[in-house]
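Sample entry as discussed:
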Amino acid sequence: MDDSDPFAAPTRIATANRPLLGLTILVVEDSRYACEAMRLLCLRSGARIRRADCLKSARRHLQVYRPSVVIADLGLPDGSGLDLIRELAEASPKVPVILGTSGDDTGEEAAIAAGADGFLPKPITSLALFQNAVLSRLPADQRPLGPRVVQDDSVCPDLMAYQDDMAHVADVLKDRAEEGKTLDYVAQFVGGVARSAQDTALEQAAASLAAARKSGAPVAGDTARIAGLVRERLEQKQAI
């Protein structure tokens, strides 16, 4: 989906307050909450945003247009964002800026090894850090000229988007709760979303499930715990 103004001029010049004017950013992210944060960051920065919630959708976008920046989550429902980063890094012409993102502390090393120009650890809420991550990696001839206003603000996504993520987790667990790959995806997805929303209890439950999967320990208790916490959040009609 393109959140840009359909009547905007095709070429826009960056300003001190909106240093990313003229850029189109493709955000490949399955979390509605994380996408909402990225939408607000792009809006405040002047960038156009297009969004894809899986690898298939991202590749479909890339067949139609060439974005200025791609920000790819490493954990996606139909595969790893690392695969997309490798494809983009090897493509010609190359997307000017490729950034990986994840709530996993080990994600940065993997993203850089796959060919990413940089990495954004979740939660991504700082306007200054977001703008710097993009601007510092743009080719010199594409960077805006002159000074820019450093806005040390943070965005706050609508918590209804977090509710959407909880509903997504509930659906995944309902349909494929016994599948190993599904549990790995749930642990990654829930961990990243919970960290972004500062939902400590759910983040800890996701970490416990991830550790159990890695060690080969029984996962029924951890899975039930996550399902229960998700159900509580949906029943309360609020994210946290």
Summary: Residues 170 and 228 are 10 Å apart (CA to CA). The beta strands are 24-28, 48-52, 69-73, 75-76, 79-80, 97-102, 118-121. The longest strand covers residues 97-102.
